[in-house]
Amino acid sequence: MTGISQPLITIERHILNQQEQYPGATGRLTNLLYDLALAAKLIARETTRAGIVSILGATSGENVHGEVQQKLDVYADQVIFRMNDHTGRVCVMASEEHDELLQIPDRFKPGYYVLIYDPLDGSSNIDVNASIGTIFAIHRKISPGPRGTESDVLQPGHKLVAAAYVVYGSSTMLVYSTGRGVHGFTLDPSVGEFFLSHPDITIPSPGRYYSANQGHQRDWLPGIQHYVRWLQALDEPDREPLAQRYIGSLVSDFHRNLLRGGVFFYPGDTRRPQGKLRLTYEAQPLAFIAEQAGGYASDGAGNILDIQPHSLHQRVPFFVGNRELVEKAERFLQQHEAQYLAEYVRTR
């Protein structure tokens, strides 16, 4: 029998331990986080046997962004909603797959928290068996009355009470933060439980990787072009360049850089000045986690967490990872794109 040299801490035990650090905590957030962990287990079960049950492939519908929905997208979206629509912990939800808010059914009592989620990030990778993920963000309710409103969802990222993501790859891993560090858990499918595998995550420095879709490089602004040359050390042969790694799943690219050090960026460009990624569903929760791990996230003009959202599906340029690498991107943009940044900041 192989000996066990360290404590086995389940995600439930860890969340309860975190709750004990907050005097007066009611346990509602604890239970909500555990509900999300259970939803992740259900989604992970389907991702690992997707081909067997014919769940792979596209449906006949599109989401609010005009993107073809994958069957697993729809399944993940429904699982998360049904896991949280009746518990009395959530007052309203917002999903990247839906144009409008997801209200709690009238027959159930609404709760105190707001749940925002991207049910299946990187779903274009599903059919080729590449890593995909789920992203969660949690706010406190701020509007009067029992029902949640758009104002509850459209809060700046620095008001988040928790954020998490799940990456479905060679193993399933859940990473979360409630504002007291970042902790990672790996799912043991033989017992159906998440165990603490990466306590107190901090982004290593110096960063090793940069992650970007260079297929769009011809549309990038000059500041980003100069930034990439700097990352590649093309003008400094004595400096070690960063290695390029890009999966095409935001969660997967972010996760690698969180554990190994680096920067992910999806900038605005001449075709899409606001970028591609969504502020509330993707940028805010990952920015929150990055900051708790010692990193930083920016839209090129300032801290992502300081942006006041104005619409549910607002897009934003996104740079996240090691603080020094993200701040370097800001400096290149400020040096080369003063007019662009002035117009962007005016409209963001």
Helix and strand succession?
Answer: HHEEHEEEEHEEEEEHEHEHEEHH
pLDDT averaged residue by residue: 90
Q: Spans of 5+ residues with little confidence (pLDDT < 50)?
A: none
Give the CATH class of the largest domain: Alpha Beta
For the sheet with most strands, the description reads:
8 strands, mixed
Number of helices: 9
What's the CATH H-level homologous superfamily of the largest domain?
Answer: Fructose-1,6-Bisphosphatase, subunit A, domain 1
Question: How far apart are the termini?
Answer: 59 Å
* Beta-strand percent range: 15-25%
Structural class call reads: alpha+beta
Question: Could you name the CATH topology of the largest domain?
Answer: Fructose-1,6-Bisphosphatase, Chain A, domain 1
Strand order of the largest sheet: 4-3-5-6-7-8-9-10
Q: Which CATH architecture of the largest domain?
A: 2-Layer Sandwich
Q: Domains counted in the coordinates: how many?
A: 2
